[in-house]
Design brief:
The chain is mainly alpha-helical and 95 residues long. 83% of the residues lie in helices and 0% in strands. The protein starts with a helix and ends with a helix.
């Protein structure tokens, strides 16, 4: 998605919407099989998560559309930064 913004000049909302089309279905379908084959999928828990994910996607989509493009881009950058920092701290702590 950042490539769509930087290299192709997409606005933040347009880039996020476009990336969802390209990522969600193919990634989910291709990624689940190796995990399922390795017995690393809890189908019951996954199915129980669906309502919350659907509701979160609806609310998140409406919230995202209400933000100006610049604010959306800053929010996304902050989210990625903190996610990266969390991952680094987790590795350093040995988790």
């Amino acid at each position: 998605m950042p490539l769509l913004v930087v290299a192709f000049g997409f606005e933040q909302h347009h880039a996020q919407g476009t990336s969802l089309v390209a990522l969600v279905a193919p990634t989910s379908l291709l990624a689940i099989w190796p995990y399922y084959s390795a017995h690393q999928v809890d189908i019951k828990v996954g199915l129980l998560m669906i309502p919350g994910i659907v509701l979160g996607a609806i609310i998140g989509g409406k919230f995202a559309r209400a933000l100006p493009a610049r604010q959306m881009r800053r929010s996304f950058a902050a989210f990625i930064f903190f996610l990266g920092a969390f991952q680094l701290i987790s590795v350093w702590r040995g988790r």
